[in-house]
Amino acid sequence: MTADIPPTPTRDEYQAALSAAEDGAFRGPSDDPFALFSAWLADARAREPNDPNAMALATVDAAGLPDVRMVLLKGADAAGFVFYTNLDSAKGVQIAVNPRAALCFHWKSLRRQVRVRGPLAPVDAAEADSYFASRARDSQIGAWASAQSRALPDRFALEAAIAREALR
Q1: Does residue 1 form part of some domain?
Q2: CATH number of the domain where residue 52 is located
Q3: Does residue 158 share a domain with residue 112?
Q4: Structural domains of the chain, count
Q5: pLDDT tens-digit readout, 94-137
Q6: Residue 44: which of 102, 103, 104, 108 has the closest Cα?
Q7: pLDDT tens for residues 67-88?
Q8: Whole-prediction pTM value?
């Protein structure tokens, strides 16, 4: 099993990769952490090959056990970090019971990560509806058909739900 783990880079290899990633333009610390985050996110959008707005979202269940999953950042400013979720999903239920979470952005190619902890608050219904309306039709159908975080009896049940919701 350990044969599958890549070897640890040497100090010289790590420093060379770090220098290339930073491109001599490290920005921080800052009096305005949101401005720094925005600059880092812009760097990630320009240079991170996969999902620069992906973030790990950690919540806890009613027993206090943590869960973590990847979600996509849809907005960020001094008011907070915005993501959307199905309120009936495991994360939606966990957030309703305990509206606090942690986020972690990891931009491997930039050798950066940002961690955030704090309270959660829902966006207003009009904003959520506007976001949902902006999604691709197949994405909307999938959301309507999905019994998020609940087991399905078989694939046919999902396919039937998708066919039913496609008629909306």
Answers
A1: no
A2: 2.30.110.10
A3: no
A4: 2
A5: 999 999 999 999 999 999 999 999 999 999 999 999 998 999 99
A6: 108
A7: 999 999 999 999 999 999 999 8
A8: 0.79
